[in-house]
Design a protein that fits this description.
alpha/beta; Dihydrofolate Reductase, subunit A; two-stranded antiparallel ribbon; eight-stranded mixed sheet; globular
């Protein structure tokens, strides 16, 4: 299972249920990696998307039993139920947020796909869990400088859990 996230240098990932930046290359990479896979997310993340992600089976986790999801979106009340369903349908599902779901899923993940954004956003209320680098091997890294479409320098980093 893979966790995918864009984080700043303080592990910030969002504020008021919104992303902290717009990085077209990151969005393109997210789409490319998650396309035709199961994506698992919390209710707030799903609400922030506005609609299910196309060409992916969307699984939403909510403790609210009355929460309604569109047809073809699966709803579960716990991460364990969501992961059991996800793994029965896809050998490599993606956990796509938010902060609470990332924290709960960290122990199950064997891969981290991180976009490290080289900034420190002040106004933030949601954070990615601290990565214990003694438990992960960096297997890929690619730097992208800021430009007219990207306000910040950033890098794509892939980590594999040490066995």
């Amino acid at each position: 299972m893979t966790i995918i996230a864009a984080i700043d240098e303080n592990n910030a990932i969002g504020n008021d249920n919104q992303l902290l930046w717009h990085l077209p290359l990151d969005l393109k990479r997210f789409k490319s990696l998650t396309q035709n896979h199961v994506v698992v997310m919390g209710r707030k993340t799903f609400d922030s998307l506005g609609c299910p992600l196309p060409n992916r089976l969307n699984i939403v986790i909510s403790s609210n039993a009355d929460y309604k999801v569109p047809e073809n979106v699966l709803l579960f009340n716990s991460l364990s139920e969501a992961l059991e369903s996800a793994l029965s349908k896809d050998s490599n599902p993606y956990i796509i947020g938010g902060g609470t779901i990332y924290r709960q899923a960290f122990e199950y993940a064997d891969t981290l796909e991180i976009t490290l954004v080289h900034t420190r956003i002040e106004m933030t209320d949601t954070y990615f869990p601290k990565i214990d680098f003694s438990k992960w091997n960096k297997i890929f890294e690619e730097f992208h400088p800021k430009n007219n479409k990207h306000l910040y320098d950033f890098r794509f980093i892939t980590y594999q859990k040490k066995i």
